[in-house]
Amino acid sequence: xxxxxxxxxxxxxxxxxxxxxxxxxxxxxxxxxxxxxxxxxxxxxxxxxxxxxxxxxxxxxxxxxxxxxxxxxxxxxxxxxxxxxxxxxxxxxxxxxxxxxxxxxxxxxxxxxxxxxxxxxxxxxxxxxxxxxxxxxxxxxxxxxxxxxxxxxxxxxxxxxxxxxxxxxxxxxxxxxxxxxxxxxxxxxxxxxxxxxxxxxxxxxxxxxxxxxxxxxxxxxxxxxxxxxxxxxxxxxxxxxxxxxxxxxxxxxxxxxxxxxxxxxxxxxxxxxxxxxxxxxxxxxxxxxxxxxxxxxxxxxxxxxxxxxxxxxxxxxxxxxxxxxxxxxxxxxxxxxxxxxxxxxxxxxxxxxxxxxxxxxxxxxxxxxxxxxxxxxxxxxxxxxxxxxxxxxxxxxxxxxxxxxxxxxxxxxxxxxxxxxxxxxxxxxxxxxxxxxxxxxxxxxxxxxxxxxxxxxxxxxxxxxxxxxxxxxxxxxxxxxxxxxxxxxx
Length: 490
Known about the structure:
The chain is α/β, with parallel strands linked by helices. The chain contains 16 helices and 20 strands.
């Protein structure tokens, strides 16, 4: 690792209670210009198996950690990151190539996730059950508690590496589960730093560092981690194809999947068109479009199509592109050249099939994809039907809101969607009928508070994140049925 980050955490990988040497390292490159920003340890299946052995060995001890220890460790990690907030933001810019403004949001959300997870430890409890609703239950006392599910394997994507790792690690520890994190190969550094800080906080509280481990590596490492029968759950954020394979290979182990999407934003005829256009310009291109709930499909009532397109065409060219370290930049390089080539090819394919380019469509001299707006692409093409994961928004019009909801639902995905309208009837119709894990009214579908339940339906995944809801997923109920006495009445 280069000098800038070399002193932040030890070399190697945090496995067991120490850091073990990795068999090799790989360069971590700044996506914007390809420069090397550091060297990351690359693990293998042997280290993955070692991490599993270590996690299983401390499972009982982690499950028995007092609430104050788990809560304190999470809160101290929050405080440690807050003290180095600007450093984390800069590292994220360099690892991901994401604009600085988005990396600032990522760190802020990470802090909220850690703090809320610490608070949720106090709310992990059960309830009594009235067993005497049946005659056979007379004289019995019943209650249930929640117990840790066991070892958790958390696999995060490259687009929000610190935040996604926090959503795997913090609720696992709050629930009393040892956790093994596997970051994306392109973006391991911020997650390594997070894990180091949390392990130090655990050790300071008298808990085992092995409660939180991290292993890097390729698909073979992921397969080793997720198919071991000793684990309790896999929490994965990434593509639908990989998530489906993990679920099949890991069965019957519980899998929590946060997968892809092609989020729809519906514009009703009575909507505030300026607000809706602002939302598309803001929500379609943040994080350079590399967000699973960024606006991809805009579905507009025909009566206001022309007026809306005019507004949107005026906004998109003003979205600043360039160096992600610049305060003003909103769109920068994608994670790697292959991703850029794929997105550009999808746009060209749509244009050849008849879609109109209303804005963008090309690349800047630095190779950054221009914020692109396509009109009327074929709905069977990937640019509409799959997850673009780049700065591309597609727009089609429909006769009415019934047709808009039907078109939004005509997708194998269903993570988030939004509707712009002045009508409560339309808003509630969308909430009731749009097939998605979240429906947002008069705001971008990319709105997410890290305290709310977050997840999708259909191919967008299963299970819910957000500390409270993830803790529910990572614990199981333990029912206690007690007959206080076996003495018969005299």
